[in-house]
Amino acid sequence: MAGTAAIIFGAITIGLAMFQLNLAFGAPWGRLAWGGQHERLPMPLRIGSAISILIYGLCAAILLARAGLIPLWTGADWLGTASWAIAAFLGLGILANLASRSLPERLVMTPVAATMCVCAVLVAQTT
Question: What phi and psi, each to the nearest 5 degrees, are found at residue 118?
Fold first, then answer.
């Protein structure tokens, strides 16, 4: 179960990374991210989108390692704690997306964050 959840998380992460990359390069999809206040993101939020790609990659690597699917950080004691931290962060992400003033962000990103959170919990609880 943890392996499947980690793979689903990784796949969603790839999609989100591509989405954020497009936002960083000025795609008119800003209503789906960062509170939905801008059609095209201003430069500070574009930089934030670029940084988020790195964060997504790190989170995916942690969960894939925790699930034993990649040999990164094999046996590291902190993987469990980091996995639970990712799950908690995504739980907050669900709340943030639900609170967005942007209807498109609420409708699209809330279920994405919820799916990722469930996947992270399934991976985090593995022993």
Answer: -60, -45
**What is the distance in angstroms between the CA of the first residue and the CA of the last residue of the chain?**
12
- pLDDT single digits (tens) 58-76: 999 999 999 999 998 877 8
Three-state secondary structure along the chain?
CHHHHHHHHHHHHHHHHHHHHHHHCCCCCHHHCHHHCCCCCCHHHHHHHHHHHHHHHHHHHHHHHHCCCCCCCCCCCHHHHHHHHHHHHHHHHHHHHHCCCCHHHHHHHHHHHHHHHHHHHHHHCCC
- Residues constituting the chain: 127
User: How is residue 103 written in tokens?
Assistant: 């209807």
The domains of the chain are located at: 2-124
Q: What's this model's pTM, rounded to 2 decimal places?
A: 0.91
pLDDT digit string (tens) for 77-114?
899 999 999 999 999 999 999 999 999 999 999 999 99
